[in-house]
Write a structure and sequence with these properties.
There is one protein chain. With 328 residues, the protein is mainly α. The chain has 13 helices and 5 strands. Helix 7 (125-139) crosses helix 8 (153-170). It is globular, with a radius of gyration of 21 Å. Tryptophan (TRP) is lined by residues 10-12, 14, 45, 48, 134, 137-138, 146, 148, 152, 155.
Length: 328
């Protein structure tokens, strides 16, 4: 399939910490696989990260580190476009146009905004308009499919609504995208609190496996993973979340399924040891490539990615300006 006939995929990730197993198995593994069948555009959304206060002077390094992680894990800059949102100014420009067709009420109803604003003592206007910037990201590349986790369902629905509304008002200008939720390995749980998803927003560093963790740390984290009191190995995510999480991890790392894996164990100890070993093996090629990637190379690849992204973004933005009847 050539570029013209492959469906266009777009996804984004915030530069707010190193990649962990939850990110990788939840979404990014899917991006890597989709490269064979889609024309992929992958974006480090640094402007979205600014919607909540960032520790001063950290975002640049976080952006570079995340890019290196993504390259090492298999996002191939020959195959896909990998770039940083703030290097393509058309994102904020299109976001403005979408803000002008978005309703205050529909933005106020977004669950992510409600959750985040309830917990924060400062709520920025950027946090409120966040979904319009996300819609702009997607629409700027004539995106057909958006591979993201289930937690982004409402944002993709919002994008579809608002792009459709824009088209109704100004003509057939933007492509209406579809959501694509990855099928397997979607939910990896926190090792210390297996009722919640492994996520950088939790405060249990021991519960998160980073892709760059040295083998000894991975072993330690898995050995200390919370299980439960009855010592039976079975896959039952609601009744036995901790053990089920270990089974899922071992299954993904060995290309099996959790029920089959469970049959091979009667005790937690060996399950933990084997899960750690399989994970270490799975991450080895990534860690080797990651160690070889230096910063200047990563930055250079990002600049080249931004040039390619911008070429496409300007075409769409010209269409938008003309449709809105702005003085060219
Ligand atoms: N909101 C997404 C998240 O928190 C990140 C994101 C920004 C995104 N723009 C996007 C995802 C466009 C998909 C498409 O995960």
């Amino acid at each position: 399939m050539n570029e013209a006939t492959r469906p266009r995929a777009f996804s984004g990730i915030q530069p707010s910490g190193a990649l962990h197993l939850g990110n990788y198995l939840g979404a990014i593994r899917n991006w890597v696989r989709m490269q064979a069948t889609t024309d992929g555009v992958y974006c480090i959304v640094d402007l979205h990260a600014l919607s909540v206060p960032q520790p001063p002077g950290t975002i640049r390094q976080a952006t570079i580190d995340l890019a290196a992680d993504l390259l090492a894990i298999g996002i191939d800059p020959e195959e896909s476009i990998l770039f940083v949102q703030s290097q393509v100014p058309e994102h904020t420009e299109l976001a403005w146009h979408l803000q002008c067709v978005a309703a205050f009420g529909e933005l106020r109803r977004m669950t992510q905004f409600k959750d985040k604003s309830e917990r924060a003592d400062f709520v920025s206007a950027g946090l409120f308009t966040y979904p319009t910037l996300q819609a702009a990201d997607i629409a700027l590349y004539d995106t057909d499919v958006v591979p993201v986790g289930d937690d982004q369902r409402q944002h993709v629905e919002f994008t579809r609504d608002i792009v459709t509304r824009f088209n109704n008002r100004f003509g057939d200008v933007l492509v209406v995208p579809e959501h694509r939720i990855p099928t397997a390995g979607d939910r990896i749980m926190d090792l210390q609190a297996p009722e919640s998803k492994m996520s950088k927003s939790t405060d249990s560093p021991q519960g998160i496996v980073y892709l760059t963790d040295p083998p000894a740390d991975i072993e330690k984290k898995l050995k200390r993973a919370v299980t439960d009191n009855d010592a039976e190995v079975a896959f039952d995510p609601t009744g036995k979340p901790g053990v089920s999480n270990l089974l899922t991890i071992l299954a993904v790392a060995t290309d099996s399924d959790p029920d089959t894996v469970a049959k091979g164990y009667s005790q937690y100890g060996p399950l933990k040891t084997d899960a750690a070993e399989a994970l270490i093996e799975m991450l080895r090629p990534f860690q080797e490539r990651r160690a070889e990637l230096d910063e200047p190379t990563t930055i250079e690849l990002l600049h080249a990615g931004a040039d390619k992204a911008r070429e496409r973004a300007t075409v769409v933005m010209d269409r938008v300006r003309a449709a809105v009847n702005l003085l060219a």
